[in-house]
Design goal:
Chains A, B, C, D: Pfam families: GFO_IDH_MocA, GFO_IDH_MocA_C3. Chains A, B, C, D: This is Gfo/Idh/MocA family oxidoreductase. Four copies of one chain form a homotetramer. Chain A has 384 residues and is an alpha/beta fold. Chain A has two domains: 165 residues, 3-Layer(aba) Sandwich (Rossmann fold); 187 residues, Dihydrodipicolinate Reductase, domain 2 (2-Layer Sandwich), CATH 3.30.360. The first copy, chain A, contains twelve helices and 14 strands. In chain A, the strands form two sheets. Chain A has a nine-stranded mixed sheet. Chain A has a five-stranded parallel sheet with strand order 2-1-3-4-5, with helices on both faces. In chain A, strand 12 and strand 13 form a beta hairpin. The radius of gyration of chain A is 21 Å and the shape is globular. Chains B and D meet through strand 13 of B and strand 13 of D. Strand 13 of chain A pairs antiparallel with strand 13 of chain C.
Chain lengths: 384, 384, 384, 384
């Protein structure tokens, strides 16, 4: 790389949670420069937020439309190269389409859009433009998740037979949605979409299961629940799964699991052994065999597979966490964009970030889960 | 107690697994004496087994019928007081009925019978005779499970909203059933009944969920699987649950979860907090609150509730395990029988062992799960 | 075995802690029968205690002298075969000597005596009589400790270079000794001996380090502390160690580590790898290698070494605990006595219990530690 | 802040380990800009390294002398504000002195210098210039370490009685020093100083113990070892400690603990309870009380003290790690420099980074430990 990759941010002004996370992830490796932003729909807030991020005054924009318009007229070596969209779900689609239409790559916080239809339109646009779209399913950025995926792909566990993925959170246990900005939009159908919990975290769980196993969900049976009275969207759900190789599974996601923090965990069972990974203890990958002592694979060790090592920054015993996983997505995306601007073929390990195909599957997951939730029949075919 | 309680054992000869566990559990506290046995249907094996247990020759019987016949004719202070039935499922009902009919209390390894019909007949017989029937759902014997149950009953967590109980085992991951005596009968419908995995361990999971929560399953949606080719009974399954207070849940039980040992674990979520317990780490009860640090309640400490203390034998930091949990069931049963022989009212804490009501629910669980597994409809009403 | 091995107990009446533990350990496998007792120096208490244990009236004795005298005059197939001495330290020596002198084997709770001189006299007596003396250093009874010992002996870790053994307890954090019977004698030099904490638990830690490593302590540097004001004996200490192969080590034992239960843990480091074991999580043996994923060896699995399997009662995933470890010592001792009475050579795996040699080393440990604690010089040679 | 704080780096060229860590830590929060560097003493390497970091050609310097000379002549709003010194120990002192002499603040990787004399000279220079010197004792940057420190300071545990700090690593288990650049200089007395293991990681352990407890080491008794043949510096050691309030302790540090990664852990025992923290599981702070269930305080929760919250970036359940802890030091240092340039008083929470006083104590620790190691006397007074 000759220069840092230049990023413009849409959303993520003061007090936004996920915007700050995106910026730390983009900062960590020193490969990406935040060069401009449309950080808030409130112009005052946009200004204050932009200054706090040391943006030059003339690149603090009042709207994403203005940003895209002005940036595309800057000299090529100066203008932003991609937009990072960190707004609520209902504000993903339009800026993403506009950015793509104007030649900018796009990175979007998950879920990729408000509806499956929007996601498919984005997919079409990505195909037409040949631009990159990156989706931040953070949990697939952890090195031990990549180790797990590659061990499965290498056949270490034989055929996969069963997957259990549980994602309990407790932060929506009480009806305090009005007081909490993060809760407010996530529980509002006009901003979040047709699902609450399943859209917000169920999609992460489903993506993780498919990412590690290399399998696709083909059928599901969903029990969606509104546990806290007065909510309009599911805050909890349990799902039975079938995968395309015949494996079965369960997916549980809940935001009313009082006392739980962000306890995503997954077990994948094959013929010869199994793996278990907990997001809150991410540097340990537990591996169990039929007739051998359990093993714990740990981040940063020489015995790991290349894909795990390539996504690690420190020696073993120096814990890496959520921000490093998030930064792996940004880093791989940036290295891919760098290859493209040099008219090189991106390396496979740099293309290892969730993309619009994952985005479409995520939106399909939401729509299929909601449809199944309403059905009296046990099995619902996963359709896109 | 003036004398040890006298036990006769049915089944449990040499090489039987669970019989030896029952004897260690009965031995531990020195309250019970094995006085006779019909340890095997093979007379030679019965003899050898009885001698190895130091039984007097005249009380090593060739069949349970002989044992019950001869023992009832012994003087009251000498004859056995209860039978412990540790045979495979299809051989529970007849000896239990005969023992009850002849005035002997009964302890049976779970599940209580081969079918719901048998269980109901036993229930009727227990009612008629006024005798005690104890069922060894071991996991409810752990002190921290009792602590959990009582904390829920005390309302510490508010209304219970969700229960996740997972029971992965890996010992039937391969088709080696013929070579393994334990596996052989459990996978044979003529000995095990209409379910394999759900009958063997799913019933434990369901009992644990109902025991801790004080709730009853009212609806379920089961996905039962035969994963290892050639088996005739389910070796794996996933179930969605509804409970009588509106709570939802999931129950997973599998015997093909390669690499797992006996990893029963449960999470119970209430409005104010939640608890988590793992059978393989049984002296820790993890308790999480909405706004307080997570707590770990540990066996043997002064801060525990009485019911936990009454089922503990050593000071904190001295790990108690599976055999101690099993022994708690035997001990409470023995203390109940002692009270009855003294014409006293058994203490509530001594009546805290699984009984014929639990046995009937367990058999109903099996039958409802199997029916749901065959149904195309999502929800199946739990019926007894 | 044709008959159970017959045990007489000295001490261990009502309200005694360790006596009940010994009885449960002796009961568990059904190989040992408590046939008589001198359970208390208070005759009333002795009677009540004996009846509660279902002893026949004529074998509830008022003193150990009476017991030994009367028992030796009983027919051989009826009289006790060994005494179990569970009194405080200052009351170990005399009954042990008398029992040995009268042809009874002896089992003693640790430390074996009140002083090194007593221990050596016992050692001499054992040699003369050819009888067995068993010492209950419980922690060496755990199956994963035996696995660890054998892996070290097999050279799996190469030469051992370093041992860290920590034994924090918190139960004497406050000056409540008068109210607690267990605390009272342990902090009283006339009953406990010249050391408090190091005698009570430091000896366990030292025994565990030597047992697993197969090494002997040759030099030490002790910092003994009386932390709670008014105590007369150490309640805390830290020790630097050298072993006979040149390895170094640390041993920490404390009874004022507020909040700790019984948190004995050990790490043994060799050239090629290391092991770690925690008494409070006893079924896991953590094994680390230079270039391989960490392994966890777990009780009850087929991959374990014979010595671990021989000391395990249940399948993997069924946690075994402190009482099972204690029972392993009783079981191996009983099987040794059985071989001897059959004039057979005891099997090596049955002789795997701590004996008078360990008892002498334990008392020497106490005396050397106390001497080092008083010295201004860094290193003190371990002398017996 | 109006502008990012500008940093010049000394050392940290390609293939250096710790330089990259410093840059990621400096990048994370977007408050610091790497504006120039003297990244290698090899000019070719310096150039290549500088370009890889996107430095402008004219600010890639061939030596730190050149960098300091040229930067001080740049306009104030452009020139670097502090130097980050990430060279081996023997190359800390001269650049630090030169930077301070020319008005630049200094950040140094630990230990602060090659000898105590150098450290004292730096201390004197800091006093004279009024500039800031920050030392990267990373482990005190973790939020749960800060929580621990503040709970101790608040008196939650009463008087502190005992501290155990263990720091086992295994990466120098074999004599491969020549092939490993990191190992090579650390085991070379001409580059590392008079101690290997104790200088490299023992200082971290000692700093952590003093940081959390608020106590100072007053006496020590050290056993330093060269375990791998042929080494010239200690690669292992065990130390007995006394603190200024009378508390005792142990400190173990080893680089030959085969299989261990970076397993720094500490227990601090007070009259009323105790805490335990493991660097490899940094988001959990285990807290034990005399009569209450154990608690686990976890990063990111509302119940934590302010100082922990101020050093956390993500919500609970999103693990933070080593780089975030490291970044806390950089962030607090940058916020302090920002206050100073605005002629404001730095906030106490921003001054919470290790400084030259810690650096002097660290060097004194090394010299006292080495002196004690050579002494035949048990106790050596800690002298500065």
């Amino acid at each position: 790389m000759r220069q840092k990759i230049r990023m413009g941010m849409i959303g993520g002004g003061r007090n936004a949670f996920i915007g700050a996370v995106h910026r730390m992830a983009a900062n960590l490796d020193g490969l990406i420069e935040l060069c401009c932003g449309a950080l808030s729909s409130n112009p005052e807030n946009a200004k204050i937020s932009g200054r706090a991020l040391f943006l030059p005054e003339n690149r603090i924009y009042g709207s994403y439309e203005e940003m895209i318009e002005k940036e595309r007229n800057l000299p090529e070596h100066e203008r932003m190269q991609f937009v990072s969209i960190v707004t609520p779900n209902h504000k993903h689609f339009e800026p993403a389409m506009l950015a793509l239409s104007n030649g900018f790559h796009v990175l979007i916080d998950k879920p990729v859009a408000f509806s499956l239809a929007e996601a498919k339109a984005l997919q079409q646009k990505v195909k037409e433009t040949g631009l990159q779209l990156c989706l931040t399913h953070t949990y697939s950025g952890y090195p031990m998740v990549k180790q797990a995926k590659q061990m499965v792909a290498n056949g270490d566990f034989g055929k996969i037979r069963k997957i259990c993925v549980l994602y309990p959170q407790g932060w929506l246990s009480e009806s305090t949605d009005d007081h909490n900005k993060q809760a407010a939009w996530r529980t509002d159908p006009s901003k979040s979409g047709i699902s609450g919990c399943m859209g917000d975290i169920g999609t992460h769980a489903a993506h993780l299961a498919e990412y590690i196993s290399g399998l696709k969900i083909t059928k599901l049976c969903a029990d969606l629940n509104i546990v806290v009275e007065g909510r309009k969207l599911d805050d909890d759900g349990n799902i039975l799964l079938k995968f395309d190789n015949g494996a079965n599974g369960i997916l549980m996601a809940s935001q009313i699991a009082a006392g739980e923090e962000n306890a995503l965990k997954i077990s994948v069972y094959g013929e010869k052994g199994s793996l278990e990974w907990h997001q809150m203890d991410p540097n340990n990958l537990m591996v169990r065999w039929l007739d051998q002592p359990m093993q714990i694979y740990r981040t940063g060790n020489a015995y790991l597979l290349d894909i795990a090592k390539q996504n690690t920054r420190t020696p073993s015993g120096h814990p890496e966490g959520y921000l490093e996983a998030f930064a792996n997505i940004y880093k791989n995306f940036a290295l891919t964009l760098n290859a493209l601007q040099n008219q090189e073929k991106p390396l496979p390990q740099h293309l290892d970030f969730p993309d619009i195909e994952d985005g479409v599957r995520g939106m399909a997951f939401i729509e299929n889960v909601v449809a199944s939730g309403k059905s009296d029949l046990k099995w619902h075919n996963f359709e896109i």
